[in-house]
Write a structure and sequence with these properties.
21 strands; 43% helix; alpha/beta; Glucose Oxidase, domain 1; 2 domains; TIM Barrel; globular; 17% strand
Length: 506
């Protein structure tokens, strides 16, 4: 599925990190997303090197052929986005010293690499190599596709893909995923034209001003959903409503804030005050997910309207679309009730305005331990529960998934954890929450659909757990779909022959 470093060639490894997204790529070092975009425009392959990536680096990651970060783990921002894009990525290369100001990397052995130098990242092994490495090209031939068709005939759990853009959806279709299990809509807002409007919404002083900015975003979101539904051709598409804290859409540096003030024709002091007002001590546990939907309901109203108008547009063309809308970071039934009331009202308005009747499903992303424990209450208002095991693992362990890479290898080596719990599902702790949530949810609603949509969805051991627990499907990065299809088939065949041992599939 990916290019690989030729094992027969020389390997001048100068750093080692965590293999976060498979494949290998060679390019010139760049230290900013803007430089990555400039390099791509010139047709020059580049490796984006960052201490850690921020949401605003998504455009740079789209432009780069590989990504390297000093910090992070297997479910860090860089790792998740790179896997979704199919871009080779090495994270947590803590032995490196990255100096973005001086534009240089210093290796553990003292070698210094400047911007423009050629390096190779091997996201399959976690190695970072000096210079250009010999590569082996990927091969997706007919025999491979035939093998996957055999796998599909025997597996007993569904396999969907996480896809954030129409391009991701096309990749999911190429690998024959059975739908989209997670579409993170916030990633659609980082295009330059949308980011400007998004920031205007953030700086709005009244709900009317926010609604005006969101009205400009509406046709952009609607067009995205039309493309997604068209590409998936009637397969299910599960759309997660806006999740991240708003400060992620603002520049992180003083210089970036100054440029934003100039672009918006606002005093720098006002922009700085707004950025400071949005900052939080622990943003991943702060004003994000459903909390935004409750406090600023016009954001979710706009997204729901875009989804429904896209559904109507395809219905008028003769297509049948039943969108799945997922509420993120829920911890209480009342949150779901409030959002459901608003979404039902938006749906009624679109039906009345268009004269087209349509159906949709509303579900919840279970990412907090409390949501798993109260799944029986929550399921009364949800057609499905999708367990977001990235954040659920983070909250269950009290571990930051972006910082765990600093000590995880030591913890595994010392036997504290048998495996990295962000890579292999912790069946004793997080797994127990999944079992409790599944049991209580289905006791409340017999037809409740259950799934896992974290990065664990592509892991064979995690797929086995989900099969045993009676989950309906797993969802993973598009590029992990073939492995998931094969793993699910292997596990089903092992059951048929009475052998419950899991053999590693690579």
């Amino acid at each position: 599925l990916h290019s690989q470093v030729d094992p027969r060639g020389p390997r001048d490894v100068f750093a080692k990190g965590i293999a976060a997204s498979p494949g290998a790529a060679t390019g010139r070092i760049v230290f900013t997303s803007a430089a990555a975009q400039d390099s791509a425009n010139r047709g020059e392959p580049c490796i984006l090197c960052r201490r850690e990536t921020e949401p605003e680096d998504i455009r740079g990651m789209h432009s780069a052929v590989g990504v390297l970060t000093e910090r992070g783990g297997v479910t860090s921002h860089a790792a998740v986005i790179a896997r979704g894009l199919g871009v080779p990525c090495v994270v947590g290369a803590s032995g490196l010293r990255l100096d973005a100001k001086e534009r240089r990397l210093t290796a553990p052995d003292g070698r210094v690499f400047a911007e423009g130098d050629q390096i190779t990242v091997d996201g399959t092994t976690g190695d970072v190599l000096a210079g250009t490495a010999a590569m082996l090209a990927p091969a997706l031939d007919g025999a491979f596709r035939k093998l996957l068709s055999w796998a599909d005939a025997v597996r007993d759990i569904g396999i969907r893909a996480n896809a954030d853009t129409p391009a991701d959806a096309a990749t999911a279709r190429e690998f024959e995923a059975q739908g989209i299990g997670l579409c993170r809509t916030e990633h659609m807002f980082f295009d330059e034209d949308r980011l400007v409007v998004m920031r205007e919404m953030i700086f709005a002083n009244t709900s009317n001003d926010r609604a005006a900015a969101l009205e400009r975003l509406l046709p952009m979101q609607r067009a995205d959903f039309v493309q997604l539904f068209t590409i998936m051709q009637g397969l299910p598409v599960c759309i997660r409503l806006f999740d991240p804290p708003l400060h992620e859409f603002l520049p992180q540096s003083r210089e970036g804030l100054r440029q934003l003030a100039e672009a918006m024709d606002r005093p720098l002091s006002e922009v700085v005050r707004r950025a400071e007002a949005l900052s939080e001590s622990n943003p991943m546990l702060g004003m994000r997910g459903v909390r935004l939907g409750v406090v600023l309901p016009e954001i979710y109203d706009m997204q729901a309207r875009a989804i429904f108008e896209a559904t109507v547009e395809l219905a008028k063309a003769g297509a049948v679309v039943v969108p799945e809308i997922m509420i993120p970071l829920v911890s209480a039934k009342r949150e779901v009730e409030l959002v459901q009331t608003n979404i039902d009202a938006v749906a009624a308005g679109v039906r009345a305005q268009s004269g087209v009747n349509f159906n949709f499903k509303l579900g919840v992303m279970v990412e907090t331990p409390r949501a798993a424990l109260r799944a029986g209450d929550i399921a009364q208002h949800a057609s499905f529960l999708s367990f977001g095991t990235n954040d659920l693992t983070q909250m269950t362990y009290g571990l930051s998934r972006d910082d765990a890479g600093r000590f995880m290898n030591t913890y595994v080596q010392q036997g504290v954890f048998p495996e990295d719990p962000f890579h292999t599902l912790d069946v004793e702790g997080v797994g127990e929450l999944l079992l409790i949530g599944a049991e209580r949810g289905r006791k409340s609603r017999a037809d409740l659909v259950l799934s896992v949509c974290g990065e664990h969805g592509g892991n064979p051991e995690s797929i086995e757990f989900c099969r045993r627990a009676g989950f309906d499907y797993v969802s993973c990065s598009p590029y992990r779909v073939p492995l998931a299809r094969l793993a699910a088939a292997h596990l089903a065949l092992a059951d048929r022959v009475g052998n419950n041992n899991i053999t590693s599939i690579s």
